[in-house]
Design goal:
The protein has 7 helices and 13 strands. With 249 residues, the chain is an alpha/beta fold. The chain has a single domain, classed as Glutaconate Coenzyme A-transferase (3-Layer(aba) Sandwich), CATH 3.40.1080. Strands 1, 2, 3, 4, 10, 11, 12 and 13 form an 8-stranded mixed β-sheet that branches.
C-alpha cells in the first residue's frame, strides 16, 4: 500500500520507448513538471503523448518535443508551441487534433471501461468525414489522413462515434496526496488530471505536498488511491503561464 517513490526519475524509470503516455494539466497549469523533466533526462523516445496541449518551446511537454522524444501527439490545442508547428509541418511529428470536450470524454470513457460513445461534436466536418492531415512528408505533401468515422442519427441529429483513449502510463499532478495515492487537486489543475488517472495501466502522481494517511478529508478526495500506483513529492514547481500580456497605460 505504500506507493511512495523517492523521486520523479525513480517513478518513471521503467517507461519504455514507444509507450503511450497520458499527461495531465491544462496549458501550463497542473502539469507534471518533474515527471516530464525526468523523462527528458532519461531520453525515452518514440512516445505517443495524449495531452490537451504540448506546453511551450522550453517548458512542459515542449522539452520532450525539442529532444525528439515524441512520435505522435493527441491534443486539442497546440497554438503556443512553434517547435510543435515546425515538426508537424516538416513530417517529423504525427498529430491527431481532437475537440477539447471530446478529448476529455474519450479519456473519461477509457477510465470507465466504455469502448466508444456518440457525440454531436464534429458531425458534418472533417472530424467525422476524415481527411485531416495526421502526418506530412518532408516536402509538404500529406503522408497520412484521418479516417472517416461512423455517424448515426438520434432524434433527427447526427452523432459521431468516438473511441475511448487509454494509456500505458499516466503522469499527473496534484496539490496534495498521501502514501496510499489519494489525491486532492487545486483549481484549474482539476482539468484532465482526474480522468487521466483512471485511464492508464500505471498512474504516476507528483504532488506538491505528501501527507500522512488520514490527513486528507475523505469527502474532499478527488482521485481515490485505487487509481494511483506511484506517488512522489515534487519540487521546484515553476507554475508558469503561456503568454503574458501588458495592458496599455
Amino acid at each position: 500500500m505504500n506507493k511512495v517513490h523517492a523521486s520523479a526519475r525513480e517513478a518513471v524509470a521503467d517507461i519504455p520507448a514507444g509507450a503511450t503516455i497520458l499527461a495531465g494539466g491544462f496549458g501550463l497549469c497542473g502539469i507534471p513538471e518533474n515527471s516530464i523533466q525526468a523523462l527528458r533526462e532519461l531520453g525515452v523516445g518514440e512516445l505517443t503523448v495524449v495531452s490537451n496541449n504540448c506546453g511551450v518551446d522550453d517548458f512542459g511537454l515542449g522539452v520532450l518535443l525539442r529532444g525528439r522524444q515524441i512520435r505522435k501527439m493527441v491534443s486539442s490545442y497546440v497554438g503556443e508551441n512553434k517547435e510543435f508547428e515546425r515538426q508537424y509541418l516538416s513530417g517529423e511529428l504525427e498529430v491527431e487534433l481532437v475537440p477539447q470536450g471530446t478529448l476529455a470524454e474519450r479519456l473519461r470513457a477509457g477510465g470507465a471501461g466504455i469502448p466508444a460513445f456518440y457525440t454531436p461534436t464534429g458531425a458534418g466536418t472533417a472530424i467525422s468525414e476524415g481527411g485531416l492531415p495526421l502526418r506530412y512528408n518532408g516536402d509538404g505533401s500529406v503522408q497520412k489522413y484521418s479516417e472517416k468515422k461512423e455517424v448515426r442519427s438520434f432524434d433527427g441529429r447526427d452523432y459521431v462515434l468516438e473511441r475511448a483513449i487509454t494509456g500505458d502510463f499516466a503522469i499527473i499532478k496534484a496539490w496534495k496526496g498521501d502514501r496510499f495515492g489519494n489525491l486532492v487537486y487545486r483549481h484549474t489543475a482539476m482539468n484532465f488530471n482526474p480522468m487521466m488517472a483512471t485511464a492508464a495501466r500505471v498512474t504516476i502522481a507528483e504532488v506538491e505536498e505528501l501527507v500522512e494517511v488520514g490527513t486528507l478529508d475523505p469527502a474532499q478526495i478527488h482521485t481515490p488511491g485505487i487509481y494511483v500506483q506511484r506517488i512522489f513529492q515534487g519540487s521546484g514547481h515553476e507554475k508558469r503561464i503561456e503568454r503574458r500580456t501588458t495592458r496599455p497605460a
